[in-house]
Batch of 2 targets.
Target 1
Amino acid sequence: AQSVAQPEDQVNVAEGNPLTVKCTYSVSGNPYLFWYVQYPNRGLQFLLKYITGDNLVKGSYGFEAEFNKSQTSFHLKKPSALVSDSALYFCAVRDLAFYNQGGKLIFGQGTELSVKP
Amino acid sequence: DTAVSQTPKYLVTQMGNDKSIKCEQNLGHDTMYWYKQDSKKFLKIMFSYNNKELIINETVPNRFSPKSPDKAHLNLHINSLELGDSAVYFCASSQVSGPSAFFGQGTRLTVV
């Protein structure tokens, strides 16, 4: 079964410092991996995805993620954190069952990112 | 211009009532979903529909009944609401050939 894990419930970073939000995955076959962000009282917003190709994926708001097959990881990164980046971040993997009919996303448990001035 | 829109945004109701949440997408996607986010923020799929056909029903109580009148709409009707149904419900859509899903703003359901 496909799964993702986010080992940290909370990450605290000072504004201007680099940030990393960790995600590891377990899939059979090639993974389709995603990062979503949820701001307080708002819906999930798509940040970036890895399907195939370059291991470093660039996304919205200056975020990027590095796909590492040997470590089965897909960590989210940003070189310089902003206070406005404070939110709940979800890693997700596409379950390939029912792929031809849309499939589904399997989410990690979420990581609360707090960026302090 | 909202891509995936849900109504209402907030819903407070008493135990035992029946309520519906509506979802519409204007992205031309083939597949629509309902996800539930519990009090611990954990997200889990409930249902998916592809071209109005139910594809995924993830062991959801039969008090929950999704209905897709057309490709652009997926509504969620809940009978005999229970306290444990309190959660945030997200609608989403995707193209079958595209892996990304786009989510609505969520409906915060509170059962009192």
Note: Chain B touches chain A through 29 residues (CB under 8 Å).
Target 2
Amino acid sequence: EVQLVESGGGLVQPGGSLRLSCAASGFTFSSYWMNWVRQAPGKRLEWVANIKQDGSEKYYVDSVKGRFTISRDDAKSSLYLQMNGLRGDDTAVYYCARGTPTPGIDHWGQGTLVTVSS
Amino acid sequence: QTVVTQEPSLTVAPGGTVTLTCASSTGAVTSDFYPNWFQQKPGQPPTTLIYNTNNKYSWTPARFSGSLFGGKAALTLSGVQPEDEADYYCLLLHGGTSMFGGGTKLTVL
């Protein structure tokens, strides 16, 4: 069974940093693209970033470029999102999501809440 | 700034049929956009229904189907059930990045 468990969310002040983690199990992590998707309270889903199997390609939504960094550790079956320069509009539930062989997402974690507030 | 547009809300009667659409501001949606469709119920993470335009997962109910229609991606629900009341999102690939639509709130009434 595919499982994705996010951690690392919490309350952070504007301008601060946070590192999210996603522990994957139930599949060969190194064989899949991985994604971060977020959802602000009461708002739509927003795709944030993804990373190729070998980490050689990474893509970001414009609003986080230069502030967020996606990475992975295949030995630990883990996905990360380093978030710097956090702003109020980064407040959201952040989901870890597995990519599909054709572009897309098939499995989702339960999410971790990030709140940016003073 | 690319925008992906969905109907904000739709209402359907139980047992009825409804089609949700997904348009891109860049032009006609084709299979090269690899449309995905997701269902999200309150307080839960999304679940994936459709990938690559019209392909279903093992867990996707048979009443859900995906297609391309009139330059848009489409999700059709046939024989709607009360438990289908939810938010539905499409996802389109634009170059190397992906983009969700604004979501459609489907009410079964």
Note: Chain B is about 0% helix and 55% strand.
